[in-house]
Amino acid sequence: HSIFALAGALRKIIFLTGDSCLDYLSVWGCVHARSLFAPSCPEMFFLSLVSGAGGWSPQVTDRQPWLQLDLRDRMEVTAVATQGRFGSSDWVSGYLLLFSDTGLAWKQYRQEDGVGRFVGNVNADGVVHHKLSHSIRSRFLRFVPLDWNPSGWVGLRVEVYGCAYKSYVADFDGRSSLLYRFNQKSMSTVKDVISLRFKSRQAEGVLLHGEGQRGDYITLELHRGRLALYLNLDDTRLRFSSGRVAVTLGSLLDDQHWHSVLIERFNKQVNLTVDTHTQHFRTKGEGDSLEVDYELSFGGIPLPGKPGTFLRKNFHGCIENLYYNGINIIDLAKRRKPQIYSVGNVTFSCSQPQLVSTTFLSSSSSFLSLPATPSASGGFTVRFQFRTWNPDGLLLSTQLSLEPQRLELQISNSRLRLTHHTSAQQKEEVSTGHRVNDGLWHTVSLGSRSLQVTMTLDSEPSSTIELADHMDAGDNLYFGGCPSLSPADPGCENPMLAFQGCMRLISINSQPMDLNLVQQGRLGKYKELQFDTCGIHDRCLPNFCEHGGQCSQSWNTFYCDCSGTGYAGATCHNSIYEASCEAYRLTGSSSGYFSIDPDGSGPLGATQVFCNMTEDKVWTVVTHNSTDPVRVQGSTLQKPYVMKFNYSASPEQLMALVAGSEQCQQEVVYSCRKSRLFNTWDGSPLSWWVDQGGERRTYWGGFLPGVQQCSCSLEENCMDMNYFCNCDANTDSWANDTGVLSYKEHLPVSEIVIGDTNRTGSEALYRIGPLRCYGDKSVWNAASFYQESSYLHFPTLQAELSADISFYFKTSVPSGVFLEDLGLKDFIRVELSSPSVVTFSFDVGNGGVVLAVKSHVPLNDRQWHYVRAERNVKEASLQVDQLPLRFLEAPSDGHLRLRLNSQLFVGGTAARQRGFMGCIRTLNINGMTFNLEERAKMTPGVSAGCPGHCSGSSSLCHNRGRCIEKNSGYVCDCSQSAYGGPSCKEEVSVSFDRESSVTYTFQEPFSVMQNRSSQASRVYRESTRARENMAFSFMTTQSPAMLLTVSTFSQQYIAVILALNGSLQIWYRLHVYRKPDVFSPSPSSLADGRLHRIRIHRQGKDVYLQIDQDIHRKYTLSSDAELILIRSLTLGKVIENFDEEVMQAGSKGFIGCLSSVQFNHVAPLKAALLNRGSSLVSVRGHLVESNCGVLADSTTSHPLSGVVTAVVFITLCVVVVMTRFLYQHRQHRHNLETAYRREAAYQAEPVYRAESAYRTELHLHDSATLRDNREYYI
Questions:
Q1: How many whole angstroms separate alpha carbon 450 and alpha carbon 448?
Q2: Is the peptide bond prior to 1005 cis by the omega test (within 30 degrees of 0)?
Q3: CB of 124 closer than 8 Å to CB of 113
Q4: What is d(CA 395, CA 385) in angstroms, rounded to the nearest whole number?
Q5: What are phi and psi of 462, to 5 degrees?
Q6: DSSP-assigned letter for residue 733
Q7: Averaged over 38-65, what is the pLDDT?
Q8: CA distance 129 to 27
Q9: Is 941 helix (H, G, I), strand (E, B) or coil?
Q10: How many Å apart are CA 148 and CA 153, to the nearest integer?
Q11: What is the predicted pLDDT for the residue at 13?
Q12: Does position 556 have pLDDT exceeding 50, yes or no?
């Protein structure tokens, strides 16, 4: 027997000052041990902590020890405390806490984050208290040890704190209800508060209903184990509509345990709270009051005039403490007050069902073996209920009497499948059901009679397998899985996974199985089971998928489907779009339409803009609904003309875009005739515009706000110098007051109001241009740290559930903390821990976690390096430059929330030690850019900006080229660019003939994928899913022709071809069994001997295409699927199994010139020249280096046409070839090849060798041409 040692006079202790529900409760209780199964207390025990000796310790042979406390009545428990066994080495270091009303069916208590594990003791004498985040109202408590002192054994003393709990209970049998009748015909309320607690035996049932004649209604009901609230105010259209929309909350509410509900309504605003989860919403309908006629019903909706008949399925279970606007409904019913009318059998004590569940914990090793009791009628029958989230798992397996035949019942792809194995190679199968892994209870029956085996699921039609002979079940039935090695039943094997979920009501041949006997070892065998409880947990409540991601789950984890959201990652946290046009330019993009996400991983979402990259400044252009000139007549100040502008971005997105830009402007073209802007007599405005904040503005040019003037006044050229605007001269001829609004805090223009066009001959003509912004304030927002003790401080990081941190740094010191934020125990930190290692560490309550990325070259090389750290409830990751991603999964049942309370320290720590010395720029956390420069201006030891040639926003290196600092200047690293030359601007061109091709073979699937787990690979693919960037130039007269193909191992492909008529076609085959998406942007032929520049950019379903500078198109694919495991990219001739038209173009190859080809981060044409002989690049046929791109650029201003164009092009090609092979100097060719080899060698060399590796390709820029910027922190 278990050992009990008891002691001490017990007293109330003060757990927390001021809490009125923290009395000592165990004084009224009694204790059961694991091996005692008596339903009542065999003896009174007292367990004391500090003041008492002794304690509880189970037998060493006890497989699943627990300690159970009976409080004699339902109590409200608010805290627990534990201690080890007195005078011993026995203590519990971790445990579960279960509770029950009956002592039979138990539920695991979970803390705020869904964490079930309680931290216990570290010695035998210390007391560990836990204040419960939400109280338990129950009679029985059970402590289940998980871990204990490895040098001792389980030892436990416990105390429980709380207070008495008063309950008004009503029991509904599924055919009954309570009606609360009003004193008047109807009750109209603008404020309602309804609260109750319930426990249900079914997943369906009405808890509350009321309705009125004008269309108001309120219904609260259980549906599929979730609580649904239907609420409508004064809208008759919705009363009889089948499209009524419910607000749903909660999950698994049919678990026979108590759940609390609170409905709070004021006018149209409603809060619905179920247990600890709250949802806020606004009601449907026109009114603010809820009008209910005659009565409210609880437990069902009785049909008027037909007692005992109900419109919907009634509630079956218990309701307690039911209050409607302060009225205790159950108390009135119990006292038989006339306001309450009872329908059916409503009793006032809660009956206790005997539905006890068992949890199968492991998907690999759990099983329950029960003997097959003989059936008097022959054959066998098995019946049980199950619930799970897993789409696969073995439910039942048995060897049949005729060996080697056996039956297997399993969940497969979310359906129920019965398999009859007649031999090792032969089997018969039947399936039924749909989504049986929905978390609900399902009833399955399996039986053999005569020559049939029948399977029945819930109320669905039975499925049957015909047998050749009559047969019985074997000696044992295996539920949930099979033993790893079973000599007694070698036929039992887990097909893939064992069952992970709950079972109950198991009966064999109509005999119920008593699982208490299994626990005591008196019946069957088992492994990895938890008795008396169903441990199912809804991991999608709350939904941790961000930005509208759809949550699905298995038993151990949840998954987020980010399709169509514009976000990616494990929790749909990361935007798949760049934050600005400037960011797209830095990736090597050219002008075109792009989706930008101004706040990154923030809540705003992406919007489409046009990025104009033809100038030194990159302009972001946002259009609106009225860009054409508009003529206005007949308006007065009393009845003005009003136009509201709807932009292609939301107001919040516009505010983020404007705030993040260096400068914005918007042109206002305003022409007038006898139409004034201001009143001549008093200067009051007759017309005005409204800014982004809704404020009226009366300046009409670049003037400062508040000055009622126009541009002509600034330029001192108004037609009448007596007025500040041309229109105010009030002449009969047309006047113009066009200006550019450039005070960006007021932009964009949201509305224009014109009020003086009602006189004879009076009219105005206006046009509001698009919003145009340039620059990205975040890209080069930097700070330099000169002292180890210095730092920048910002408000506490708001990152409880997710945090993504990204920045660039450069330094010459070996170590230093980039940023840190602390809580009481939690923390988050990113630091350079050694010259070549960046670490990301944090603790959310599960113990410290450290991720480290080690570089093969020093990171303190005074060059810019990129760091991105992310932590969410599913995983953490760390990325440094292009090095392999470090990835770590979060524990499935651990703490989730990162609780911080200190300031965020950037560049240092709270202790002023291990501070960073160097430059940090572009610090972005959860989509918010931190203004380092502004904060640095007021901080000692830190300065705004960063010294060095590569620290400004000017583009020294183009086309994805990387600027590298040198002591005497800078060099451009063009290794990631399709271009070459000193600034990565020179075209890299090759002439192809009919048989030529270049194939670039990707590593699996990209080079950055090396040395990563399969799970990490999945995360990397998700972070880059459905996103391709392609850019190239070509010149040819051939059609059809194959320009480029990208193929995958999964038979997907992208192809860019010229059709028979010379028109460009883009083919996307993303699904093998669907037709490909084909786009042809223009019917005109591109096989005209001119150089054409093509840019293709895909984000999800959206494909943006640009041809030269004049054709911009957007197309929508039928799917946003990603390219899975890219195999290769081919330029020119290709022979593969594509669609017929693509194969035809592929067989014809390509004759002409291809130039500066880029696909994502790969430049295949350049790689072919630099890496001849490499296993990654395969060259077939004859390739000739060319300068066709440069020649074409020099002739684009004088285009030729027709035959002349073709002749000139062919002649140029011949001249290039002849020049290359006959007249080029050998030494010049040798130098060029040497330069290309040096550039290739650079990719494998440390960064600090750039000067020697790029002696020809990367010209060293003379520092005399630039200002002397010294890095004083070195």
A1: 7
A2: yes
A3: no
A4: 10
A5: -70, 155
A6: S
A7: 63
A8: 18
A9: coil
A10: 6
A11: 36
A12: yes
Question: What element of type H or E holds 700?
Answer: none
- Tell me the C-alpha to C-alpha distance, in Å, between residue 269 and each of 142, 189, 190, 191, 264: 41, 13, 10, 10, 8
Q: Is the pLDDT of residue 444 over 80?
A: yes
CA 55 to chain centre: 48
Contact 321, 195 (CB under 8 A): yes
pLDDT computed for residue 236 by the predictor: 59
Mean pLDDT, the chain, whole residue set: 83
Q: CA-CA distance, 177 to 300, in Å (whole number)?
A: 5
> Distance between alpha carbon 668 and the CA centroid of its chain, in Å?
41
Q: Which residues contact 893 (CB under 8 A, 6 or more apart)?
A: 114, 115, 116, 117
Q: How far apart are CA 88 and CA 657, in angstroms?
A: 66
Paired with 142 in beta bridges are: 68, 98
Query: CA–CA separation, 547 vs 569, rounded Å?
Result: 11
Mean pLDDT score, 662-667: 92
Q: Give CA separation, 333 vs 179, 552, 1250, in Å.
A: 9, 43, 87
User: Taking a C-beta distance cutoff of 8 angstroms, is the pair 967, 1152 a contact?
Assistant: no
Give Cα separations from 622 to 345, 589, 1004, 1089 (angstroms): 67, 18, 39, 36
- pLDDT tens per residue, range 236-256: 555 444 456 789 999 999 999
pLDDT at residue 823 in the model: 93
Q: How far apart are CA 972 and CA 724, in angstroms?
A: 52
Looking at residue 1069, its amino acid is R
- For residue 1036, the one-letter residue type is T
Using a 10 angstrom Cβ sphere, with 0-12 exposed, 13-18 middle and 19 or more buried, the burial of residue 732 is exposed
For residue 1236, pLDDT over 50 is answered with no
- Nearest residue to 153 via CA among 69, 240, 59, 70: 59
Alpha carbon distance 562, 544 (integer Å): 12
| Position 908 pLDDT exceeds 70 | yes
Q: Is 1227 exposed, middle or buried (0-12, 13-18, 19+ CB in 10 A)?
A: exposed
The token pair at 1030 is 């392609």
Residue where the block lists tokens 């696969």 = 392
Say if residues 432 and 455 touch (Cβ distance below 8 Å). Answer: yes
Distance CA 594, CA 580 (A): 9
List CB contacts of 1032: < 8 A, sequence separation 6 or more: 978, 1043, 1044, 1093, 1094, 1154, 1155, 1156, 1157, 1158, 1165
Taking alpha carbons only, the member of 996, 1048, 1009 closest to residue 1168 is: 996
Residue given tokens 């109509």 in the structure block:
510
DSSP code, position 794: E
Q: Using alpha carbons only, what angle is made at residue 801 by residues 795 and 803, rounded to the nearest 5 degrees? A: 60
3-state secondary structure of 236: helix
Beta-ladder partners of 226: 223
pLDDT (0 to 100) of residue 178 = 93
CA–CA dist 510, 377 (Å, integer): 11
Whether 1026 shows a pLDDT value over 90: the answer reads no
Produce one character per residue of 1093-1104: b if its CB has 16 or more CB atoms within 10 Å, e if not: bbbbbbbbbbbb
The CA-to-CA distance between both ends of the chain, in Å, stands at 73
Distance CA 839, CA 867 (A): 10
Pairing of strands 406-412, 415-421: antiparallel
Backbone angles phi, psi at 346, to 5 degrees: -110, 120
Report d(CA 960, CA 353) in Å as an integer.
69
Query: Measured between alpha carbons, how far is 906 from 916 in angstroms, rounded to an integer?
Result: 9
Which contiguous run of DSSP H or E holds residue 386?
A: strand 380-387
